[in-house]
Amino acid sequence: MCGVCGCGTESHEHHEHGHTHNHSGSKKIIEVEKDILYENNLLAERNRGYFNAKNILCLNLVSSPGSGKTTLLERTLTDLKDKYPFVVIEGDQQTTNDADRIHATGTKVTQINTGKGCHLDAHMILHALQGLKPAENSILFIENVGNLVCPAMFDLGEGERVVVMSVTEGDDKPLKYPDMFHTSHLCIINKTDLLPYVKFDLDKAIENAKKVNPNLEIITLSCTSGEGMTKWYDWLKEKSYAYNEAVMS
Amino acid sequence: MHELSLVMGIVDIAEKEATKAGLTKVEEIEVDIGKLTTVEMGAFDFAWKQGVRDSVLADAVIKINRIDAKAKCLECSAQFELQQFFDACPQCGSHFLDIINGREFRVKTLTFAD
Ligand SMILES: Nc1nc2c(ncn2[C@@H]2O[C@H](COP(=O)(O)OP(=O)(O)OP(=O)(O)O)[C@@H](O)[C@H]2O)c(=O)[nH]1
Ligand SMILES: [Mg+2]
Ligand SMILES: [Zn+2]
């Protein structure tokens, strides 16, 4: 039996309870049991609290590079800017190109350059918010770095995670990057205007996405032709807290 | 790769615990990593060598427990081991699952040298 805590084992390898053993002349083992992402999760909860307090709908847009996140935002902001107050945070490794595209629509935008970093984290968002100061009842879009792996583990405090894929990417994408599809609420399948030219089984893609996450909502659309965009706008309307408030009052 | 951020998260935890305990050198660290997490072990090892330099973990041996993935079916309550997120319930074929294990990512223990 362990003389210090009386836990009934000589081996300190497998204690389940969290406390410290301090044996003079031997090693000191600390049972930490702490989530490695706890710092990020803590800050994400802080962001979430801020969004709730200000009635802000925050959407975290994730995808492979080039699936059409910025194009989707450009079109949405142009079409709906008179209906909702929007703000955008752009995450890219380099350049302000995407932020410039958003700026051109007349929307308030901040660019975060992650350099070598392949994802945004809650800490970066916290600082971006200090500069942006989004108005109450606004919709905040965060365009994450184009990458389907790394951003999956990093909660930003968003209300909804939206994964964008496009028909040029292969219908097995959800199976290849299951963590991202598992943690998302909505999947947008973009570039449907290209369906006649590519080998992409839309039903199969949806089936694969539902296998990974049966609760995932799916919207198919084309940012170029505009087909299906109203489904996305309806979804936004439904989710937007501002809208909910307007309905209630 | 995000593996370096993950290693820095581990270093941060170890540094804080060391300061609290007034110790400076970790001999062994035990980490739980669930099999469903998107941690690429090759990239993790590489990031580890870079990330622990000049920290309390510089000379630490890392012991990684890969935790098997387990799920409970929300339709029929069967419990089973998952290989992938997209596995179906072996009893009823449903994909509505509550994932019980496999997404762990935590520092379990730190062993300090006196
Ligand atoms: N045909 C077609 N092309 C599209 C559509 N949506 C976007 N594109 C094109 O796809 C390319 C990439 O679009 P972006 O919006 O820059 O993609 P992104 O996801 O923001 O890319 P990153 O920020 O680099 O990850 C551009 O050339 C777009 O014009 C679509 O619906 N149909
Ligand atoms: Mg973009
Ligand atoms: Zn079942």
Short description:
The complex is a heterodimer of chains A (249) and B (114). Chain A has a single domain (29-248), classed as P-loop containing nucleotide triphosphate hydrolases (Rossmann fold, 3-Layer(aba) Sandwich). Helices cover 35% and strands 21% of the residues of chain A.
Q: What features would you highlight for this structure?
A:
heterodimer, A: 249 residues, alpha/beta, Rossmann fold, seven-stranded parallel β-sheet, 9 helices, 9 strands, 35% helix, globular, disordered N terminus, B: 114 residues, alpha+beta, three-stranded mixed β-sheet, three-stranded antiparallel β-sheet, elongated, binds guanosine-5'-triphosphate, binds magnesium ion, binds zinc ion
Radius of gyration of chain A: 22 Å
Low-confidence stretches of chain A: 1-18
Q: Whole-number average pLDDT of chain B?
A: 94
Q: What's the total number of strands of chain B?
A: 6
Uncertain ranges of chain B: none
Helix and strand topology:
The complex is a heterodimer of chains A (249) and B (114).
Chain A: E1 20-22, E2 28-35, H1 38-53, E3 57-63, H2 69-80, E4 86-92, H3 97-103, E5 108-113, H4 122-132, E6 139-143, E7 160-166, H5 173-176, H6 178-183, E8 186-190, H7 202-212, E9 217-220, H8 229-239, H9 241-248
Parallel strand pairs in A: 3-6, 3-7, 4-5, 4-6, 7-8, 8-9
Antiparallel strand pairs in A: 1-2
Chain B: H1 3-21, E1 26-34, H2 41-51, E2 61-67, E3 69-73, E4 79-82, E5 97-101, E6 105-112
Parallel strand pairs in B: 1-2
Antiparallel strand pairs in B: 1-6, 3-4, 3-5
Bound molecules: guanosine-5'-triphosphate, magnesium ion (MG) and zinc ion (ZN).
Residues 63, 65-71, 98, 146, 190-191, 193-194, 222-224 of chain A line the site of guanosine-5'-triphosphate (GTP).
